[in-house]
Every structure is written in structure tokens, then in C-alpha cells.
Amino acid sequence: MSLIKPQLSKRFLIFTKSPTLSHQLMLVGLAITLFFIFLALFAPLFVSWGWLQSPTELLSNVPLEPPSAKHWFGTDSLGYDVFSRTILGAKAALQVVLLATALSMAIGVPLGMVSGYVGGRLDKMLLFLMDSIYTLPGLLLSVTLAFVVGRGILNAAIAISIAYVPQYYRVVRNHTVSVKTEVYIEAAQAIGANTWQVLSRYLFFNVIQSVPVLFTLNAADAILILGGLGFLGLGLPEAVPEWGHDLKQALPALSTGIWWTTLFPGLAMTSMVVGLSLLGEGLNEFINPRLRRENGIRK
Fold first, then answer.
1. Which of 42-56, 115-129, 224-238, 255-269 bottoms out in mean pLDDT, i.e. has the lowest?
2. What is the dihedral of CA 68, 28, 138, 229, to 10 degrees?
3. CA distance 245 to 255
């Protein structure tokens, strides 16, 4: 760990002293992401305090009422307040996405380290398995698993996470293969360090530098997949506010000129995806010195 801290500190100083367009876009992405995290954390409190209408209880609202001072985003076909459902949708999205990406990372990173370090037949078997999973489209794989595991926060996260395991595996495995021949690894082996000690003390912090970038980009993609599952009726229970499900419910009224029931959930989903994508691209430049040099030359 001591080997990587000076490198990260030096990169941070260079990155902040010479801001580029990617740096500015990363700050925009960070602001958007923090905004949605704030909504996810405090929206339930706003409902309990009466600042937001309940997004799940039947109210005496007029169905399909356009945006007004009383209902900022209007109401949907059942009379639910679109504003409250859009705000509360951030909580469901973050819960599923963070859990899905954490599960895929928890599986893919250790498998990649063990596969790259041990090599041999185990490495070939895991490579074949991960390549087989990776060839399948992520949405199709998630839809298939959603049929099997059913609805729910955890079930949706499991259905989404399986598609990202090969990505973490390949990135960490390739880094492990290149790092395990370094002198400090050979020195650790020479002094009697076992496999677990080498992986946890000497390899781990040197092979996960790209994982945060992959985490944010996968989170952005997972939001879209969750929306697709909700649109197909395979994501979360109907009682849980979720953007994909709300878009499905709003679709029949779109042809009649009812635009607000689709605009605001879709805009929220798009904004969150854009924020995480910009954050991931900025982190990629921060971690990858070559990209930073190329951007500096273009600038």
C-alpha cells in the first residue's frame, strides 16, 4: 500500500494544477452524482415530514393533471404525484445499482487476482467461463436471470451484477499477470510469503487502480438495465417507485399529449447516467497518466 500512495498523491497534484476539459466534466459529473445521492438519502425524510406526497399511497389527486404549483411535475394516470415518484426513484436506482456493482466487484476482483497469480489450468477454466458470460448481451442476460430470481431489490441486483463480473475479472487478471513478475513480488515470495499474503499485501493495491473507473461506468450502465427491467415488468415490485416502471405506465397516455409522465422520469434517468459517465471518464484520466499527457498536448 505504501508503494501506491506517493503515486496517487503525485497524480492528484498534477491533475488539480493543470485542469482540462475532462477535469471540468468530472466535476460536473460529481456534482450530479452527489445531487442524486442527496435525494436518495433525504427524500424519505421529506415524505415523513410532509414536504413530499407519498409516492405509493392512493391520494385524492386528479389523474393526469398537468404540472402546476400544487404538482410541479403533474400527476400520472393513477393520480400519483410525478414529482415525488421521480425523486423517490433515485433511492431505488442507487440501492440496486450500488448493490449490483458491489456484488460483481466482490466476485470479479478476487477471481481475477487468483486466476492471474496462480495461472495454469485454473486460469484457463476461468477465462473460458468469463468469456462465455461476456459474449452474452448484458440486458438479455439480466432479463433471463430476472425471470428466475423474481422481483426485489436484491433479486434485481443479482440479475444485473452477473453481466459485470467478467469485466472486473479481465481487468484485474491482466494487471495481476503483468505485476506478479515485479521484483517486490519475487522478494515477498523469497522471504516465505504465502499466496494469500502476496495477494492481499502486495498485489491488491497495485491491481485495483482501474476498478473505481469501471465501477462508475458500470453503475451508469446498470441504471439503464434497471430501467429496462422495470419497463418490462421484471425489476422492482410495483409498490416501489422506479423510473422504468413509471415510463411503462406512462407510455399509453403519451400519444394523447400527456408528456409530463414520461419526460421527468426519463430526464432523471438520463441525468444520473450522464453524471456517472462523466465521473468515470474523469477518474479514468486521473488514474491513467497517458490520457492526461495526451489531453495536455491537445490543450
1. 42-56
2. -20
3. 18
- Helix 260-287 to helix 211-231 angle (10° resolution) is 160
d(CA 226, CA 92): 10
Cα–Cα dist 275/220, whole Å: 8
Contact present, 276 and 33 (Cβ < 8 Å): yes
Predicted local distance difference test score (pLDDT) of residue 25: 82
SS3 75: strand
Q: How many domains does the chain have?
A: 1
- Point out the least confidently predicted range of 101-110, 172-181, 290-299: 290-299
The residue written with cell numbers 481475477 in the block is: 112
Contact assessment for residue 117 and residue 195, using Cβ atoms and an 8 Å cutoff: yes
User: Residue 269's domain spans which residues?
Assistant: 5-298
How many whole angstroms separate alpha carbon 283 and alpha carbon 214? 9
Query: 245: domain CATH number?
Result: 1.10.3720.10
